[in-house]
Write a structure and sequence with these properties.
single chain, 462 residues, Aspartate Aminotransferase, domain 2, four-stranded mixed sheet, binds ligand PLZ
Length: 462
């Protein structure tokens, strides 16, 4: 225990890790949503913008480990983890302690006025754990989209070039620049223009649908970049090592290293958007490691601080130092409490071997999903790594032929599971992907329980 942490016994009961513990099991005691959630939803509808939607309007009162507890006392198996944020579990005891202790010491100074150690420590940890063995530097910001924005700014300043390239099916955020970088206009960009210019959407690799090898897909992507953008105008290529919102796309083997090689040869900064796939999500610290990819810059957010808002751009020191002093920053970026939480998340990953938990979840989930695929021919593809696994659903009888997307089946499965106390999320360009994005605290027993619910849901579809 460091001197910034307070012993659990001295905390009020409500904030002690002990009191926060929640039985790790599913329990449905009301209709979903229950009466209290419905009441809250009516209040929300009156005052919260309808531009902010919710997948499942059950209002959460408590969360711990792999479980969400709503205001009506229902307990959900959480296969969304706040879209990959609570990777180290909901309210992990050591993180809650670090947050509480830091809150008592100092809440805010603004690092660009008077700095503090926690920010520096997070930068050291990121330098150590991001891919690549070279000097690295970091800037901390508040959100994933802000990390993308800063990665692009830094790449432009470093290269003196203007253009930004992304891949088809990508998702990068909701700010002005990032909404231009997303593949889907609806709901992210429609009506919100004018969009930022100089953003190019290059063809990607989608093994289930395009059948291309990594080499062929990379050749197609590079061909597009050379013809449509021109290498000498291209500042950066921003790529998710496993696409998140796009449907947990795992590119064909060799695709990512081939793109990095081309970028390096042409002075283009290649940026890994690891916002969803990073921080122990896939059984490695960063998903790029699975594919032999060493990016120039790496973007981290979501899982880094167990729910506290924190994001980072980390990468080659000579690129990260391109900005003039004062060019990077922001009022809340690298807030001390968020940084203390991040340090504790790194500790939890190391001390509790959470990377191994990711590999365990992959093995259990994919084995169970393979069994379901034998029963249900709408499961066209199973893909992903670690605790980032998805199934792509197609219309019955089309898995070997047209692979016609089946978004209706995904919505029906998600709705059925929610009624049974299992929270699943959809994804994919056509909304036809069901994704499993649990915390690393999701046990094999709970996975088996959820797959049983999913099996019943598939049976009701048929
Ligand atoms: N890059 C790869 O996954 C956020 C978005 C959920 P922010 N993904 C979840 C939603 O509907 O808002 C994300 C991502 C990748 C960037 C982002 C953006 O991160 O922290 O939401 O800004």
């Amino acid at each position: 225990m460091t001197d910034t942490q307070i012993p659990v016994e001295s905390l009020p009961a409500e904030s002690s890790a002990q009191a926060a513990a929640v039985p790790q099991e599913r329990r449905v005691v009301t209709a979903i949503p229950g009466p209290k959630s419905q009441e809250l939803h009516a209040r929300r509808t009156a005052v919260v913008s309808s531009g902010v939607s919710s997948v499942l309007p059950v209002y959460i009162e408590r969360a711990n480990g792999a479980i969400l507890v709503d205001v009506d006392g229902n307990r959900f198996l959480d296969f969304g983890a706040g879209i990959g944020v609570t990777t180290a579990g909901h309210t992990p005891a050591n993180v809650v302690e670090a947050i509480t202790g830091q809150a008592r010491d100092v809440l805010h100074t603004l690092f660009t006025i008077t700095p503090y150690e926690e920010y520096v420590r997070v930068a050291e940890l990121l330098a150590e754990h991001t891919p690549g063995d070279f000097p690295k530097k970091t800037v901390l910001v508040n959100s994933g989209a802000e990390a993308v924005e800063n990665g692009v700014k830094i790449a432009r300043k470093h290269t003196g070039r203007r253009a930004v390239a992304v891949l088809d099916h990508a998702y990068h955020g909701r700010t002005n620049l990032t909404m231009a970088m997303n593949y889907k206009a609806m709901p992210y960009a429609t009506g919100f223009g004018p969009l930022a210019g100089d953003v190019y959407h290059a063809p990607s690799s989608y093994p289930f649908r395009d059948g291309l090898s990594g080499e062929e897909a990379a050749e197609r992507t590079i061909g597009y970049l050379e013809k449509v953008v021109g290498a000498t105008d291209l500042a950066c290529l921003v790529v998710e090592p496993i696409q998140g919102e796009g449907g947990f796309m795992v590119y064909a083997d060799g695709f990512l290293p081939a793109l990095q090689e081309w970028c390096t040869a042409n002075g283009v900064v290649m940026i890994a958007d690891e916002i969803q796939s990073g921080m122990a999500r896939t059984g490695r610290y960063y998903a790029a490691e699975h594919f032999g990819w060493v990016p120039d810059l790496v973007l981290t957010a979501k899982g880094i601080a167990a729910g506290m808002p924190l994001a980072a751009v980390t990468g080659r020191a000579e690129i990260m130092d391109a900005s003039q002093p004062g060019g990077l920053g922001g009022t809340f970026g690298g807030n001390p409490v968020a940084c203390a939480a991040a340090v504790a998340v790194f500790e939890a990953i190391e001390q509790e071997d959470l990377l191994a938990e990711g590999r365990r979840i992959e093995a259990t989930l994919t084995a169970g999903l393979d069994r379901l695929r034998e029963k249900y021919d709408v499961i066209g593809d199973i893909r992903g790594r670690g605790a980032m696994i998805a199934i792509e659903l197609v219309k019955p009888g089309t898995a070997e032929t047209t692979k016609e997307p089946n978004p209706g089946a995904v919505s029906a499965l998600v709705a059925h599971a929610a009624q049974q106390g299992v929270l699943f999320l959809s994804a994919g360009t056509w909304g036809n992907v069901l994704r499993f994005l649990p915390s690393l605290r999701m046990t094999d027993e709970l996975i088996a329980d959820a797959l049983g619910v999913l099996d019943d849901a598939f049976a009701t579809l048929a």
